Amino acid sequence: MICIRAKELFSDYCDGSIDPAISVPFETHLDECSSCKTELTELRSVWLGINSMPILEAPSDFRAIVWKKIDAQANAEAAKTIKPWFKFSFKSYFKPALALGAFAIALFMLAPVVIPGNHTNAGLGLPWLGQSTAVKPVLNIAVGEPVIGNYEGKSWVNLPVNNTGSVPVSLNVDIQGTGVEKSAVHIDSPSGTNNMYHLTHVAPNLTTTLIVKTTWEQNGIVNSKVYKLKQ
Length: 231
Known about the structure:
Layout: H1 3-8, H2 10-14, H3 20-32, H4 34-51, H5 62-79, H6 90-110, E1 141-143, E2 147-151, E3 154-163, E4 169-176, E5 184-189, E6 193-201, E7 210-218, E8 221-229
Antiparallel strand pairs: 1-3, 2-3, 3-6, 4-5, 4-7, 7-8
Helix pairs in contact: 3-4, 5-6
């Protein structure tokens, strides 16, 4: 496993949601890569610190107080005598607009900030601020070890694929060896599924060793797994 792939799994590993099929090569990588191991340790410390922070709540009349001040400022400006155009003051003209702009910035800064991991969301929890509905696609797929099994009276090469992400994934499987019906198989794994795919028929009582290579693209990186298979 390469460092880029390992760092994508930091969050899942810390909160215990990492797929068991991925945890073994992930932990092996941590034993071999001191850089990733150190970064993971530091990330855990940050999350523990965030979880220990107290939750702040805004006053119940916070919104009313802010709008009351804005309305008072706007009414005061409107009540002033209109000056001739040659005595026009940009400062007095833009004062209400600046107040509204400052209020908008305050709302943006107080909006809940989501940080990956098992912790409480930061922010003041203002009731009129809704969470963003935009969902970032998540690609998380685990390809297991192929096995030979019987299906509908025939011997098949079977491949377990667990796609826990939010997007479908395409996989290409190459099967090398004698006694197989197909040497190349394409799989489209839907999101949120855990399936056993029947790749190809094999000769009964297979005595030779098959080489099964599965390739797929994840976050712009081409991943592959190779297994030796014998009945």
